[in-house]
Design goal:
Helix content: over 70%
Strand content: under 5%
Bound molecules: protoporphyrin IX containing FE
Order of helices and strands: HHHHHHHH
Number of strands: 0
Structural class: mainly alpha
Radius of gyration: 19 Å
């Protein structure tokens, strides 16, 4: 998520394409294993449905934030970032709940099994990169370079790694996420309304954050060569 006005160079785009294709293939390979995994327990299934709901609503605004980060016009990029914070926290909360139940030896979550090895290894990396990406972006928008311009380097570096990790993650779950998210509208299992309300609530909270941040004039946009 470049913060300078210049578009990414043609060379970096040409270099990135095979890398993205490669990580996409890795993700597809992982998807062939994760899609078939059955869950069984209704509580564990409900958690997977909430995770996938949050995932599906994240896709479009995340993609828009990547695009606005690579082009001039940072306010849209920053406001989209603020909009994304609550749904991303909901996603992390849902997978964090499963993680905690699994490692606190809840028999139902143990029976549901951990994510497949590739996704199990990628999970913590993706969480760390997501937190770094959002934290550095928010710091830059609130304080500009008041605490040094290293934050910009961290923001860009974490973006490149995050983008590659997310490509694997989305490719791996491209079939499972919509299947789980749509399952609720098909069988209306217990808690479907609550799951939907949580996701809608996180989006409304995102809109409220954007409205709050709209009047804020970021010191970052006053820096030469940005905005
Ligand atoms: C900031 C964005 C995101 C972060 C930080 C994130 C992180 C995670 C983590 C840590 C897990 C648990 C480990 C695992 O099961 O692989 C997970 C699970 C999952 N994610 Fe994401 N994810 C994000 C976005 C997405 C998106 C855009 C999709 C859409 C395809 C997605 C689909 C899924 C699915 C289907 C699961 C497994 C649900 C289950 O079986 O319980 N995620 N995510």
């Amino acid at each position: 998520m470049r913060a300078t006005g210049a578009e990414p160079s043609l060379y970096s785009v040409i270099f990135l394409i095979p890398v993205v294709v490669l990580v996409g293939v890795i993700g597809y390979w992982a998807s062939r294993r994760s899609t078939s995994r059955s869950i069984g327990d209704p509580g564990v299934e409900a958690n997977a449905r909430l995770t996938s709901y949050a995932a599906m609503v994240l896709l479009l605004p995340l993609a828009a934030d990547v695009v606005t980060g690579a082009r001039p016009g940072l306010q849209a990029h920053a406001l989209l970032g603020f909009f994304l914070v609550p749904p991303v926290l909901l996603k992390l909360g849902s997978v964090g709940y499963r993680f905690a139940r699994y490692y606190s030896r809840d028999p139902r979550y143990r029976a549901g099994g951990p994510p497949d090895l590739a996704m199990r290894l990628l999970g913590p990396v993706l969480v760390l990169l997501t937190v770094t990406l959002f934290a550095t972006g928010i710091e830059l928008w609130l304080f500009g370079f008041a605490f040094g311009n290293e934050w910009l380097i961290w923001h860009k570096a974490s973006f490149v790694l995050w983008f590659l990790a997310m490509t694997v993650h989305v490719a791996a779950y491209a079939r499972r996420a919509p299947a789980l998210a749509l399952a609720d509208s098909r069988d209306r299992r217990n808690g479907a309304f609550e799951r939907r309300s949580l996701v809608v609530g996180s989006l409304l909270f995102g809109v409220a954050l954007v409205v709050t941040m709209l009047p804020f004039s970021s010191p970052f946009t006053l820096l030469p060569d940005v905005g």
